[in-house]
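Hey, resending since the last one bounced:
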Amino acid sequence: MNRKTLRIGTRGSLLALQQSQWVRDTLMNYWPGLVVELQVIKTTGDKIQDVPLAKVGGKGLFVKEIEDALLAREVDLAVHSMKDVPAILPDGLIIAAIPRREDPRDVLVMRGVSSLKELPREAKVGTSSLRRAAQVKALRPDLRVENLRGNLDTRLRKVEEGHYDAIILAAAGLHRMGWQARISHYLEPEQFLPAVGQGALGIEARADDAEVLAHLTPLHHLDSEVAVAAERSFLKELEGGCQVPIGGYARVVGDMVEFTGLVASVDGSVLLRRAGKAPVAEAAELGLRVAQELLAAGGKAILAEFYC
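The structure tokens again:
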């Protein structure tokens, strides 16, 4: 391997930097003599903080500018949260490695209570996700779900200052930051499905950059790849990638992969769920099949109003 320096394109939030620093440190541990640098790139999603994501529209709000830098060879790889990556990548780019997945669950951070059912009527719950909003409304239609934007530390500060009674976040981000103690309650996938790819990192690179691809091989985790493949196949069939009320969670059990998918109306009045399992080699086919079942069961009509 001749290249001595690699450049990682990353968002500038505390969490994004933490994730990219982990990839940098892991690469440098695997490849002595290799230097890995971080290059912060501001994305559309970072620039627009005062508008709900669902109203911004478009796909890849948190990745497009970083992918542009990759294609322009300004950076050599990019570190994304897989839940931010659209189902279809630009020509010439691939997800080269998916490290071992963190906890995929959503969590509640609350003041004074320890579960969703303990929140008082009319309590104010913050989230920017239509998927999270729909599932909260289905479980507790008496709660007020209001838009919450900002980086992870900003969101935590807003609940601590009393602007919200509770907020919903991804467990993975809090775990990676070492902030597990802030978590009030974990929302189990059997009741509350996470976003497709939630908890997984995706390391994106140019498909023709053999040297970078070889450097990334030790970071890849096969079971995480299988689970994410089922989930992203599901997302692709539903034409997801905009801010739409879609959830999906897969896990590998022995030589099988189990998957559950969700399509919901934004008001939580309709939650369609379907599940299945298949051999790990057929993970993508499983995601496709569950998506088609949901579309046939009414999901197509629900999602039509959201497509960008």
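Residues 106-187 form a domain with the D-Maltodextrin-Binding Protein; domain 2 fold (CATH 3.40.190.10).

Sorry for the duplicate.
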